[in-house]
Amino acid sequence: MSSDILDILYTPIDTPPVPDYNRLELDKWCAKNAPNQHVVNRRDGSKEARIQDTGMHFSKVYPWDIVYARNNYAWLDDFDIKFSQLSTYFCSIFSLEPEVISSIVFLPVKTNYTGTTYWHADPDEIGLRLYIENNETDGDFLLIKPTVEKYQSRSEWGFIPPVDGISPKIQNVMHSAKVTKPQQAFYINNVRAVHAVNVNVPNLRRLAVLVLTKRTAATTTEETKKLILSSAEKYPDHAIKWSQQR
């Protein structure tokens, strides 16, 4: 196994179980906040989708009703008070100091959304993610395509991935990411790959969480690197590695 985390495009990550939480109350909190948030310097990929000329309205392309629980190093609308166990959990599972976590973002899939319409790479190079609910784990729910070049950072890209995932800079190879359980933490590489959610059945109970820092692949800690590398070794049948297209 390579010691370079950028050679790993995806792997499940070993973490403690997700604490009990009230999904109905969380849905209410998300529904209240999603339409009212004005987030400056977004750390998700929705800005890139908006500026592309896709020939399709943004609301049809973008799969999520995105909502921030934390941004600019501060909790929003008392999330840490209303959901204290979740807030503590999110800040502890990836071997990070809580104070370096700039944002925590929920990605509930839109009602009635289906398809694979939004290929992208998120702005954070080391994508630390988890599903706190995913009832489609047997299907191809998350698809990944490697880049052609073996980039070392996002600044080397020089392009915005097209939402259809077709580009001379993206390999014509598609991998299906898998998890070991419906509630699963994972790492996704935003330097050497693009990804897209795939939804076959509308009204899914699928909820992903982004745990965002401003660290890059070059500046992330040894503890986080070890967590990613050891997880890839533990799950060799699930880990996806970068390789040159043949």
Model description:
Strand 2 (67-71) and strand 3 form a beta hairpin. This protein has one domain: Jelly Rolls (Sandwich), CATH 2.60.120. The chain contains six helices and eleven strands. The chain is α+β, with helices and mostly antiparallel strands. It has an eight-stranded antiparallel β-sheet with strand order 3-2-4-10-5-8-1-11. The chain is globular. 18% of the residues lie in helices and 22% in strands.
Q: Which helices and strands, and how do they pair?
A:
Layout lengths: L7 E6 L9 H11 L12 H6 L6 H4 L5 E5 L2 E2 L3 H4 L1 H7 L12 E6 L17 E9 L7 E5 L28 E2 L7 E6 L3 E5 L8 E7 L9 H13 L5 E2 L5
Antiparallel strand pairs: 1-8, 1-11, 2-3, 2-4, 4-10, 5-8, 5-10, 6-7, 6-9
User: Rounded to an integer, what's the Rg over CA atoms?
Assistant: 17 Å
Question: In CATH's first tier, which class applies?
Answer: Mainly Beta
**Second-tier CATH architecture:** Sandwich
Largest sheet properties: 8 strands, antiparallel
- Average predicted local confidence, pLDDT: 89
Secondary structure: helix percent: 10-25%
Low-confidence stretches: none
- Beta percentage is 15-25%
The coarse overall form would be globular
Q: What's the domain count?
A: 1
Number of strands: 11
Q: How far apart lie the N and C ends? A: 20 Å
* Element order: H for helix, E for strand: EHHHEEHHEEEEEEEHE
> How does the helix and strand content classify structurally?
alpha+beta
Task: Assign the CATH topology.
Answer: Jelly Rolls
- Number of helices, where a helix is a run of at least 4 consecutive DSSP H or I residues: 6
